[in-house]
Please model this.
Amino acid sequence: MAEVTLDHVSKRFQEVDAVDDLSLTIADGEFLILVGPSGCGKTTALRLIAGLEKGTAGTIRIGDRIVNDVTPRDRDIAMVFQNYALYPHMSVYKNLAFGLKERKTPKPEIERRVREVGEMLGLKDLMKRRPAQLSGGQRQRVAMGRALVREPSAFLMDEPLSNLDAKLRVQMRAELKRLHQRLGITTIYVTHDQVEAMTLGDRIVVMANGKVQQIGRPQDVYGSPANLFVAGFIGSPPMNLIRASVMDGYVQAGTLRLPAPPGTATGEVALGFRPEDLQLVEDGPSFELVVDVVEPLGNLVVVHGSTEGTQVESGAEEEEELPMVVGGARASVTAVFAPELEPAPGVSLRVSVAPERVLFFDLRTGAAIRSSR
Amino acid sequence: MTDVDASAIELPAPANERGRSLLFSRWHLVLLPIAFVMVVPLVWMVVTSLQTLNETRHYPPTLVPSSLRFKNYTDVLRDTPFTRWFMNTLLVTLASVTGNLIFCSLAGYAFARIRFFGRRVVFVLILATLMVPFQVTIIPTFLIVRQLGMIDTLGALIVPNLAGAFGIFMLRQFFLTLPIELEEAARIDGASRLGVLLKIVLPLSGPALATLAVITFLWTWNDFFWPLITIYSANNMTLQLGLATFQGAHQTNTNLLMAANVMSVLPMLLVFFVAQRFFIRGIATTGLKG
Model:
């Protein structure tokens, strides 16, 4: 087990900065998530730690060793690949034993560890099969097992669940968390799925365009995103973002008028609020939501609609430079309500949001405007 | 394969539509004459090898021998150093096949996966040699082999054929198609470069290696010109060279020549049958997501 430290690490591919000045400390035993849209550099960061890519700048430490020039085999890490990368010509047993054999582990020790991991992951009866004779979920387990038997100081996982069907993914997600709680091995986990990011991580690192956008505990990243990108990326359905103007201590967005947080400068801002923070109201500061599409999910209902105002794009959807203001007289708004309420399309609802649940972002830089509340 | 092709291709329905269908695919109407043309010389060879010398001179040729004269075969084995030639050829061929498999794998893998200075240039140069006809390189090759003191030895036949541009190119292309994650996983698991090649890449390259082995085998087994230039003594001759000595200036014992030919063709048939199953399908991608 070990701490993993990245110190001003960069990786340039010809003209593109895949990873740009990444500094990060992953504590011993921590489950850290690297999350972001495709092409954000999260996989490259993982491969840098694994030693499969050589960084252009910076130092990487595993434990108290600088590993910049250490080969993957000597970094004492194990990796689970997105497509599992099981050796097709070897049985499950041989797949699991391969890493130990290559390290000249004594045979009885190999047998003991493979059996142990096999039992832990329910692979006992599959030991003689080839990868081609396994289901997707079983292959995934073998891939996990191959990393586990090595008892490495850190696990690196590159979207290990993305090839499973939805049900199995949820199941394996819980299993992964259980395994980590039991073994407590430092884990660095790459995903583009923000549900995985929220549920699995002790901390999550949101990345875009090779740069870190925010590092923090999942609930902190969700509750107070550092910028527009994180606001739009973390959360499903994503945060509503509407252009607003600050004047005389008030914020005006379309028909919604709220008291401005103290210290907000006069001018244009982006106003953000989570879909679940919208509430139906009779009067008071509110705005009109014209329902467009209704998605009942059983435990709740997601309502897509629009309101008067101007949409702000977070950049999370388009991988564009942030922020982006999209013109038009109407802004789309998503709301999440209790399942009893199932409005018909075309109906207009009067909704509001508690002032303390509203976030403000600088329209030019995209950064969150933190009030001293 | 022909069955699949036949069902995949829609031929126009026959003009007479009385439900009279052939017992075999219509493609066979094309394949049968071609097969006939291919088989006749072989059959003729076998038939001639069992005839007397007089029968072979008969015109029109007799395709059914009056008696099966297996004595031709024992005569060849008794009167000529056939066994010696056969062993020479076998040695040269096996050495060439082994050499090609080893060296082309190593070079092909380096060109496919290892980044080194000048990789592209060297690879293009090697490819370019494929375009130079053998006739151009005969004299320099001969001079080199002479410098090595190997003229009129089996070494002259083996050493220049231990590796080839074609094999390097073919294996490189195949290695490039293997999923790189397998190799990365093996490297993280602790395998060295050579370990990755030996334990992961080569076991997954069965079809490519079998193809290269068969091609090299055929090429070396049938090579006539290069042995003709470098080998003088009867003891060091290969089969192809030895068979040529059957043809005298005044008289050729055609029946004995054909008997020798039959025996020299057998190993190739064997190689084809053995290698066939390797060609069926690669399994390299079956360990990835399903």
The helical segments of chain A are 42-50, 92-102, 107-120, 136-148, 166-183, 194-200, 218-223, 228-233.
